[in-house]
Amino acid sequence: MGFFLRSSLAIVKKDLRIQFRQKSLLLSMIVFALLIQVLLHFSFQANQAALHHVAAGLLWLPIFLSALLGIGRLMAIEEAEWNWEGMWTAPVDPGSIFFGKMLGSLLLVFLVEWVSVPLFFILFNPPAPQSLPLLIGCLLMGTWGYVSLACLFSVMAQASRLGDLLLPILLFPVSVPLVLAVVRLTQIALFPTMPGQEWVWLAVLGAYDILFTLLPILLFEYLLEV
Amino acid sequence: MNNRLLLWQRVLGWLALLMVAADVYFVFFYAPTEKYMGDVQRLMYYHVATAWNAYLAFGLVLIFSILYLWRREERFDHWAASAAEVGVLFTTLVLITGPLWARPVWNAWWKWDDPRLTATLILWLVYIAYLILRASIEGQRGRRIAAVFGIIGFVDVPIVHFSVQWWSSFHPQVISSQGVNMTGEMVVTLVFTSLAFMVLFFFLLLARVNLEKSAAAAARLEERLYSAD
User: Any transmembrane segments, and where (chain A) (predicted)?
Assistant: First the structure.
């Protein structure tokens, strides 16, 4: 287990070092998230009256879309110059390679949220959240499951002729339960609604996260093998 | 081996023809007309029969995907690909017959607050994605990637089912925990239709598998032809 995590962390360190030296990917993801927020504002006419219904979408769609593009780029680094093959020959668990790539992507998306979530509060002026811990927990858990599947599917998409176009086609239908859960949880966290229901959705999200972290770790070697 | 599968395909093909023809009698003459919905309710037999067989198809995709990753025999991949295709065809039929029935009965083609409708749409999209993935990817690595998606996709199905259910609910519960809300003739018709469609399903599945086998054999011959000169 210690060795598994150490090899994952080595990959995280490598990815973050590249990203912080280039900075272009992280900055583009943040700018992209802001742009989506602006477009959503115009297309939903998100005034105070409409906010109750569209708040969850305004919060999550920028994150989902910017994560989609960012992870595609972050995984594509390894397609070049036979990097996957290089890592595949390393004497480590292939699952730890996946876990490392996933943690790196996760940190990147968290950094995007660090900007886009406060921007959501500044731009749309919703009432102060009913439950800040629930909102933060929902952001952490929702991002986790989404990023894990995005990383797995992005390797599949990049092996195909369609490339990154395939990523949303694979990812969106499978992530529907996660979307339902985070939308409901966000609504509960932001506005006073039915109490008690949040546990159902936290359970859905928790099960989803565990399942779709373990399965990719177990199955990743089949994607790398040549 | 190959000949046995072809023989089965032929037998099942004729059987499917006979059963689906006989089923027309059951659905349109034997089964009584429903009191409130009228003749449009007869769509239910086809709707439910194709839905059950679609679930069977996607279950087979899971089983053959696991078998392929485990045993690495190409034939398991053929079965998984074929089952997914026929499953998507059947799910498409479910998604067509459902709204046709819903328009007169619910006064709407589609209701997002119906969990089974939504879940079926998501299921359909997952396996459409599987087919697009398969079509855009080649070779051994492609087959392994498809198998991994076949497993992930199926694991997602029950989660979609329950989460959409908690989201809201009002599908007709024909078979509930209180028992079956149908007359005896209706039950007989539904069971017979389901069997007829199951035979049809296996015929289509075998036809696709045999086609995959021929395509693989042709590819091997072509390879030999090029490596000879």
Answer: 24-44, 50-71, 106-126, 132-153, 165-187, 199-224
